[in-house]
Amino acid sequence: MIAMKKISVFISILLLAGCSSSPKPEPTPPPVSSLTYSVSTEPKPAFNPARSLHKAYQRWRGVPYRFGGTDAQGMDCSAFTQTLYEEVYDMRLPRSTHQQVEVGRAVTKAELQPGDVVFFRTGRNTRHNGVYVGEGKFAHASSSVGVTISRLDNIYWRSRFWQARRMLED
Asked: Catalytic residues, which ones?
């Protein structure tokens, strides 16, 4: 009988050792100090108004001129100026050229900086505007070619230049 008891205990030990219902231990996570983090030491590029204006201009380049238009089907000069300001500066300008000329402060041609709005007298009661993008150029919605960039020293624009205004605070 003692031999039977020894065999029974031996079988019980074998059965318990082979039991797979007991949970397997979870792998130990690596210590926090061994984790690798990717942190950029490069500074974010500074806001560049000229680059941002050119980028926004590229999205609208070639859109035809349409008096009163405000979208990709056609837009007028003040809508284009308003759109650039919204996209680049997150700033809402008034809708018309006559209203926009009342905003900001006057600056001379010599003081022009990218983002300044330039105004022209194109007829007896007609006004036109655009956004100075640097290097003597301005982006605008031209009635003859649509959204384009022109030179301020072009004979047509030079003779019709009226004023420039800085909408953004220095």
From this structure: 77, 128, 140
